[in-house]
Specification:
By secondary structure, this protein is an alpha/beta fold. It has one domain (2-229): Rossmann fold, CATH 3.40.50. It contains nine helices and nine strands. A six-stranded mixed beta sheet has the order 5-4-3-6-7-8, sandwiched between helices. It is globular, with a radius of gyration of 17 Å. The two termini are 20 Å apart. The chain binds zinc ion (ZN).
Length: 242
């Protein structure tokens, strides 16, 4: 199935055109990730999408939503020195927001968030998953910063960093818990944003969104999923860091 996606880097670069982002996010929320995209930046973005090995099909994500695109997100972490280039690029974009701390949802997102915190020379918090079942099956995972870190977060301007923002359940959970700690979330940061839910969430809670790349993707609530309706079986496991 992966062989049906050889053109992804090219499609990806088309999506990066500023005009393609105008309708997706208000103002310049994503602007700094796109404007001035030189050859070096374009190659970095192409490498990022290539690492993720996009695959089409019918999948269930951590949020409970169904969708048609699968990314091998753990592959980003195979070579930390390679990941650090992306973390540094994201940190440069986040630096403009007066960030005093970076919080990442465990597991994978926090590994990136820690690198970003190092680049910015600020505090780092991680938010641990806990089960929070709901009757409609959506957002079944909650996130909580450990007790020992919570006092440090009070009053801090914080960034929430994840590798990929899809439905946004991880950044949503981390942001809510940062607020519960008395921190002031000011910006979301991600290597890749999929579709409109992430930008819509950021706009809805009044924080900026910084990302290195943006890809379109279909995402549905289970009962509204057209792939389920046409009898297409779900692939893979339920594990998905997005
Ligand atoms: Zn489905």
């Amino acid at each position: 199935m992966g062989d049906s996606f050889p053109q992804v880097p090219q499609r990806f670069l088309v999506v990066l055109a500023p005009s393609a982002l105008d309708g997706a996010v208000g103002g310049a929320a994503l602007g700094s990730g796109v404007e001035g995209l030189g050859l070096e930046g374009a190659l970095l973005h192409e490498e990022l999408v290539g690492l993720l090995g996009p695959r089409k099909g019918h999948f269930r994500y951590e949020s409970g939503h169904h969708g048609d695109l699968w990314l091998e997100i753990p592959r980003l972490y195979l070579r930390p020195d390679r990941l650090r280039r992306f973390a540094a690029a994201l940190a440069r974009q986040l630096a403009a927001h007066g960030v005093e701390a970076v919080c990442g949802p465990l597991i994978e997102g926090a590994l990136l968030a820690q690198m970003v915190a190092e680049e910015l020379d600020v505090e780092f918090y991680f938010a641990e998953q806990f089960a929070r079942p709901r009757s409609d099956g959506l957002y079944p995972v909650g996130y909580r910063i450990p007790d020992a870190l919570r006092p440090s977060a009070r009053g801090k301007c914080a960034a929430i960093v994840d590798d990929v923002i899809n439905a946004g359940s991880a950044v949503r959970g981390a942001l809510a818990d940062l607020q519960a700690c008395g921190a002031k979330p000011v910006v979301l940061g991600a290597l890749l944003v999929l579709g409109p839910p992430g930008p819509a969430f950021a706009a809805g809670v009044g924080v900026k969104l910084e990302t290195l790349a943006h890809l379109p993707r279909a995402l549905w609530e289970p009962l509204a999923c057209p792939l389920c309706a046409s009898g297409v079986l779900l692939e893979g496991g339920a594990k998905d860091g997005a």
